[in-house]
Design brief:
alpha/beta; five-stranded mixed β-sheet; four-stranded antiparallel β-sheet
Amino acid sequence: MPPSFFDSTSSEVPSRLVISFANDPSASLGASLLNHDRGDQSEIYLPSFCSISKLMEGDTVARQHGVKAGDFIIAVNDHSFRRFPSKYDSKDMQDLTVHSNGDIASNDLYGETQETCANFQQGEGYAKTLGKIKEIKSANDPHNPLILTLERYGWNSRENAWHRFLAARDGDVILAKKMMEENEKWRKSTFPLNLKREGLQKILRSRAISEIDLDHADRPPTVYVDFSKLQALEEGVSSKDVVDAFVVFTELLLARSENPRIPKTCQFIDLSETYISSGFRVSILKQIYSVFEPNYPETLEKMIMYPVSSFVRRTSSVLLSFVNSKTRNKFIITDDLDVVCRELGWDKNEVEACGGVTAFMHSHEKTSDSLFL
């Protein structure tokens, strides 16, 4: 994709990763597994019956081979544990296999058959996957070491996103499928975004919408919106420019989620030197919400609006009547800096030393020069 265009950060084609225990047959993987064989509707698009839930600390096999949370185990040696045949040719998948001395080539390792486990009863697929791993490990045969084949899917692939769409529609499968279909149409018509547009470049260069880099491993990254700057840019900047800038940063941050099955971001709306009653502000929030709610379901950890007076907080339900109740429960509307710092993990002393929230945020902006044209 040319630099002047921005494409979605979630690929539909998975990557593959092959792990051989040939160099250390007795080693453990160093990861906990997640059972995807419970008969739940959220599992219907998952490629296999278990995935990596969490990596253990230390120099483990999983870390040595680049395994990440969310990777699906789809084969053990030459035994396939797929729910259904893959619609992707392995030749089209990026090979993420990490080779070490003594390992055989990944092409030799990748011996998975195209058999599927569609006839398994509930719970049988997960049990047989673990059983095969234990069987090969117990045999401790140097001529038949344990080999795991994993696949990694994008955060918005059907495999990883379905459960979010299902949750957004309260478990209604028909409505969730319709929502996902509409999302696919939106993505095809939206991406790639033309970054050359003058209004979009004004927003990006002014950093009215930006990414905040605070390196908090226990909290999602934050999309920062400086509404004072947005209001100053009103001339020559359309609502589409604002929404597209928001989409760019949301895509970038979700792509860096530690686990693509649970991508999350926070949003911080800085209302310093702006007025909550401003029609421009509310209309822009409506525009952002109209894109975010149907196309990025269940990715919002929390949205903080600050500072907002107590009077306006009492009327916020009217001002934000266009927001559904589930999303509104994630909103924190406050004029209390202690609340902001607690929710986002900020050091209040540092915020005050910078001269306030706006200065603090700009001091932690992550520069994205590649977006400036």
